[in-house]
Amino acid sequence: FTPKLLAGRKVLITAGPTFEAIDPVRGITNLSSGRMGYAVARAARQAGAEVTLVSGPVGFCPPQGVDRINVKSALDMHAAVMAQAAGADVFIAVAAVADYRVANAAEHKLKKDTGGIPPIELVENPDILAEVAALKNGPFCVGFAAESRNLEEYAQTKRRKKKIPLIAGNLIQDGFGGEDNRLVLFDDAGSHPLAPAPKSVLARQLVEHIAHLTGKH
Ligand code: PMT
């Protein structure tokens, strides 16, 4: 691994889940641990980049030398990313962002004995990655896609829809939560399957691929 692959470049990364409040103590979230995103942040930093990590609620400390911005909801993550995106050279969206948030989140705790089952109304969250990809002179954008089947088809569809040059696909059973993963990188040249490995190893391979695609190595 070449330590200076991304020297001097600004890399913005999202990681972890989001938490969409239903009331002050309840919410909608998912099982992303943050491990993959944190491994990418560490690898980018080790490659010499200046790294900002926008992180949903996870149980880890930020990797050494990485600036972390803590967020909870998809709207918080959107605001934090959009404030940083114009200044970034590379944006890597590893977070498992909730597609929907609760429109009618309650200010006070919902009580069980007050008139039936409370309805939860959902509204769509902004697509952070698609929005960054649409910026004029914006960063080189890398997405992730976690699927339970049809990995290539679904990941490529997401890549085209969000208009991004590179997406890393993983099966949910391989990637969500644990220490290891199996990634397939999809770009204009086709698909590049990486051997199953610890997330730290895959993160370095992803960083190498990004350095290669962005032309300086
Ligand atoms: O955190 P770990 O336990 O280590 O697990 C890692 C992981 C499985 C969560 C990770 O490797 C992964 O696949 N992340 C993406 C999960 C996913 O399926 O995302 P998506 O299909 O909802 O979105 C596709 C891409 O758009 C992702 O890059 C996502 O960050 C981005 N997105 C999605 C929705 C949204 N509103 N804004 C976004 O930026």
Automatic annotation (TrEMBL):
Region annotation (Phosphopantothenate--cysteine ligase) ranges: 11-217
Pathway(s) this gene product operates in, as recorded in its UniProt entry: Cofactor biosynthesis; coenzyme A biosynthesis; CoA from (R)-pantothenate: step 2/5; Cofactor biosynthesis; coenzyme A biosynthesis; CoA from (R)-pantothenate: step 3/5
UniProt keyword annotations, A-Z: Decarboxylase, Flavoprotein, FMN, Ligase, Lyase, Magnesium, Metal-binding, Multifunctional enzyme
GO (cellular component) term, any one: phosphopantothenoylcysteine decarboxylase complex
Catalytic activity: (R)-4'-phosphopantothenate + L-cysteine + CTP = N-[(R)-4-phosphopantothenoyl]-L-cysteine + CMP + diphosphate + H(+); N-[(R)-4-phosphopantothenoyl]-L-cysteine + H(+) = (R)-4'-phosphopantetheine + CO2
Residues annotated to bind CTP: 99, 109, 126-129, 144, 158, 162
A GO molecular-function descriptor: FMN binding
One example of a Gene Ontology biological process annotation: pantothenate catabolic process
Cofactor: binding details: Binds 1 FMN per subunit.
Cofactors named for this entry: Mg(2+); FMN
EC number in record: 4.1.1.36, 6.3.2.5
Location of the DNA/pantothenate metabolism flavoprotein C-terminal domain: 6-212
Family indicated by similarity: In the N-terminal section; belongs to the HFCD (homo-oligomeric flavin containing Cys decarboxylase) superfamily. In the C-terminal section; belongs to the PPC synthetase family.
Function summary: Catalyzes two steps in the biosynthesis of coenzyme A. In the first step cysteine is conjugated to 4'-phosphopantothenate to form 4-phosphopantothenoylcysteine, in the latter compound is decarboxylated to form 4'-phosphopantotheine.
Protein name: Coenzyme A biosynthesis bifunctional protein CoaBC
Gene (name only): coaBC
Residues of the full protein shown: 180 to 396 of 396
